[in-house]
Amino acid sequence: MPSQTQTPTLQVCKSCGGGAPVDVHFCPQCTKILSLGRHGDYFAFLGVPRKLNLDQDDLEQRFRMLSRQFHPDYFYNAPPAERRASLERSSYLNDAYRTLRDPAQRTDYLLQLALPRPADRADDGKSASDVPPALLEEVFALNEELDEIRELRRSGAPVEVWKARLDRARQPIEAKRLAHEAELRELAARWDRLVDARAPDAESRAVLEALRQRVLERTYISNLLEGIERELTQ
């Protein structure tokens, strides 16, 4: 599985020179806080599996526990290297918690980890204006409707008339958004089951590819809904 079978990496303690697993925060030999260096990922840092449905209470408890351990106040009189390490780990912890506590950001982050893209192909080489194939019909119908609504406004039609049409135009897009949210929840549950089962890489990758496509479509749907809202405020 792309996200679960990574080779363990050692980090070197700058205080005693000993080696420590990349996902521990204090040196097993001398107990000093370790400099951050190259860490694995946010999931490993917080000690949680690479799942999309995480226990929020457990995540918060882990965050608070590590916050206390890394707090710079505890390293006020420590050597400079340890003070710097506490600041690095505190900052990284805040980033990790902020990302993993939000379901949408958590999904985006997992996809970045498990399905990395070259810098010049961050979005499959497509521009932000490209319409996902699954949404072509809805986008075509919406654009036609918006053109007609704009013409109504230019012709001086009553506000309640064109606003009612905008509301009707929004309904199929909103229905599509709700359907995508349901699909994303199902794909997330499938991914988590595959993590528990240590499923083969090919099976896991297929779910991740489906997740990424749904995320791209969800983003486009959100943009469509925002466009409708802008029409209302113009």
3D architecture notes:
Helix content is 62%, strand content 3%. The protein is mainly α and 234 residues long. The protein folds into 2 domains: 10-114, DnaJ domain (Helix Hairpins), CATH 1.10.287; 126-233, no CATH class. The protein has a two-stranded antiparallel sheet. β1 (10-12) and β2 form a beta hairpin. The radius of gyration is 24 Å and the shape is elongated. Mean pLDDT is 88; it is low at 1-7.
Produce the secondary structure layout.
Layout: E1 10-12, E2 19-21, H1 42-46, H2 56-70, H3 80-100, H4 103-114, H5 136-154, H6 159-197, H7 201-233
Helix pairs in contact: 2-3, 4-7, 5-6, 6-7
Structure keywords:
Helix Hairpins, disordered N terminus, mainly alpha, 234 residues, 3% strand, elongated
